[in-house]
Amino acid sequence: MTIQTIPTISELRQALERQRAAGKSVGFVPTMGALHAGHASLMEVASKETDLVVASIFVNPLQFSATEDLGSYPRDLETDTALAEAAGVGLLFAPSTDEMYPEGAVLTSVDVAEISQRWEGASRPTHFSGVATVVAKLLSIVGPCVAYFGEKDFQQLAVIRRMVSDLSIPATIRGCPIVREADGLAMSSRNIYLEQDERIAAVVLRKALDLGIEAATNGESSAKAIGDLMANTISAEPLAKLNYAAAVDTATLEEVEQLVGDVRLLVAAQVGRPHLIDNASVPTMKEGAVS
Ligand code: AMP
């Protein structure tokens, strides 16, 4: 199927109406462009699971603070279109900022309390409300059966899951595994900002997670011990500035005390210009097994 690029909400709705009338199920992959194999993996899963894949490319001003890289965020619609087409996307929604926010200022925003304030939210207090607002708007425009998000942005996924549950938005949210470079660095559109030595140093995030998993596998059940181990690993890398390292509940993202139940390891560090994040699942004990 040849990809069709659509710049307006009304044209997209018309195109989708025709597809739905023909009985097609719709999968949706929202992105900010600068597409890489991580984005492609979401599109490929979507095209296996649904009849028509819609992807969006929109660099959403609401989720950037005044000091962040909104103006310089990488943009290349031609290359992105080719990657999306190869990954099975049928409709590519690429609206302008005016199309998405015709009134300029946005008076209505979606705030997912608590989950949004932790970790990434501590240093970016308006970020997740910008994400939740645009994702709510995109889900309302596209109306997909299933929307696909990467576990790479684990806190974002938790915020969206909670928003969809709280607001009874009729879409299934599907988290997809992190796609990594050969040396373990999680793929990110912002990795292009890394200088050569920083690129090598950036692998320390994956290394910290691996050491955390290894300790848990060897029986360590204290979340603090695992967090400290990951933090010390990142702090030992001169080019990395630790932001946080913790073991958290997968739904609330609250820090846990013991590795029991559904726990995720989160790490974040500044390496040169970019702020890098990574995460991994970790083996835990069954509820009641820890004394
Ligand atoms: P972004 O364009 O950065 O907003 O990302 C769009 C979607 O792609 C989000 O759901 C991300 O979590 C996902 N994504 C970004 N990088 C990766 C990756 N390395 N592996 C899997 N998913 C990713």
Outline the structure in words.
It is a single chain. By secondary structure, this protein is α/β, with parallel strands linked by helices. The chain is built from ten helices and nine strands. The chain has a six-stranded parallel sheet with strand order 1-4-3-2-5-6, with helices on both faces. Strands 7-8-9 form a three-stranded antiparallel sheet. Helix 6 (127-142) crosses helix 7 and helix 9 (204-217) packs antiparallel against helix 10. The structure holds adenosine monophosphate (AMP). Residues 31-32, 38-39, 41-42, 149-150, 152-153, 176, 178-179, 186-189 line the site of adenosine monophosphate (AMP). Adenosine monophosphate binds at residues 31-32, 38-39, 41-42, 149-150, 152-153, 176, 178-179, 186-189.
Note the gap between the termini: 57 Å
CATH secondary-structure class of the largest domain: Alpha Beta
What value does the average pLDDT take?
Answer: 96
Largest sheet: 6 strands, parallel
In CATH terms, what is the architecture of the largest domain?
A: 3-Layer(aba) Sandwich
Which molecules other than protein and nucleic acid are bound?
Answer: adenosine monophosphate
Structural class: alpha/beta
Secondary-structure element string = EHEHEHEHHHEHEHHHEEE
The fold-level CATH name of the largest domain is Rossmann fold
Overall shape: it is globular
